[in-house]
Amino acid sequence: MTRARRQITLSAPDIGPLERELVLEVLGSKRLALGPVAEEFEQLVARRTGRRHGIAVSSGTAGLHILVHAFGIGAGHEVVTTPFSFIASSNAILFENARPKFVDVEERTGNLDPAGIEAALTPRTRAILAVDVFGHPARLEEIAAIGREHQLTLIEDACEAIGAELNGVPVGNGRFADAAVFAFYPNKQVTTGEGGLIVTDDGDLADLCRSLRNQGRATTPSRGPQATPSDGGDAWLDHVRLGFNYRMDELSAALGVAQTRRLDELLERRAAVADGYRARLDGVEHVRLPTVDPAVSRMSWFVFVVQVGWNHPAGEQAGLRGRVMRRLEDAGVPCRPYFQPIHLQPFYRERFGFVGGEFPVAERLGRTSIALPFHGLLDGDDMDYVADALRRAVGREA
Ligand SMILES: *Cc1c(COP(=O)(O)O)cnc(C)c1O
Questions:
Q1: Is ligand 1 within 6 A of the CB of residue 85?
Q2: What are the tens digits of pLDDT across the range 386-398?
Q3: Measured on CA atoms in the order 265, 271, 274, 280, is the torsion positive or negative?
Q4: How far is the CA of 232 from the centre of ligand 1 (A)?
Q5: Closest by alpha carbon to 321, among 383, 262, 356, 363?
Q6: 3-state secondary structure of 45
Q7: Among 59, 184, 185, which residue has the most ligand 1 atoms within 8 Å of its CB, making it the best to mutate?
Q8: Which ligand 1 atom sits nearest the alpha carbon of residue 64?
Q9: Terminal CA-CA length for the chain
Q10: Pick the residue with more confidence: 382 or 220?
Q11: Counting Cβ atoms within 10 Å, is residue 215 exposed (0-12), middle (13-18) or buried (19+)?
């Protein structure tokens, strides 16, 4: 008898009874925007990261854009950042007409290599934007020290890393960056549907971010048009600066509150799946498993990315990876080439003239990486199935 094909998804949100209950409560309350639930979510995430302020926004990208804008980064400025990331971390710099200055990454983690930062600094450098790739904290202590020495703003893109800890300090914490951003798209560890959240200890920056997300209004969220007249609702029509509509609604925030209350459980489930894959794939020839730096006291597994054919000749890697992915897909195992380096994306090539070869480590990771199906609801049979499919695909192709 042939085995029935399993329905394995690349990612899946873990939505339980608490999420349903809190979202229904918001529907019953009839207050769907600018309400107390977003504030509760902000406080939960801020407390969890040891920060004074949290600002909920409509996406991780919106949070990064607000920060680049709020720090006054614009035309003529450069921001040192990584080419091995989701494109939004670099696009946020372009939105404000500043220029990303890419620095190559570390081979083991795919994170920004602090050793390359100083050579990339110019008189135009205003900030460093570090990314905690795949839920593994970047070398934030060293990057922060470089930032302090050169009086640069440090923005942390923690969109893939909520709950991760470096030497016992949570990512997003003030020991590292001036401000950090989390993201809650449905493939992330914590989801709100669409959503993001900025954390910082700087009260003035927090006020500015609140204004920027809310059309440049100077007022606090509790004074929206749903507020009672005694709240001074007229201020709703005062706009003191150019702002955006980057607010988070109450339904999304309710999801976020429930998921954040379950954060430890969600991260433990994902860690168990990562361990399960590791046990099944350990020692498979031509497959390199993800490594966790000893300084990472807690990993927040976002994806499980393996490198296939890492030691193959460069010219053969992309082809090999493509054939392995095709075999996985044919076996019903969805997978993705995480990441295609940002500088090689078509519009970055066109705009900045990148041709390949500029950032060899990021590019090698880009030619060999495969993200396997990964979320907290995968069971042992799913992991067996994926691991077998990968072993067979690599055995045939490599
Ligand atoms: C997901 C992600 C973002 C953006 O998040 P959205 O909520 O999808 O806008 C930014 N940076 C990184 C590294 C991400 O993984």
A1: yes
A2: 999 999 999 999 9
A3: negative
A4: 36
A5: 363
A6: helix
A7: 185
A8: 10
A9: 29
A10: 382
A11: middle
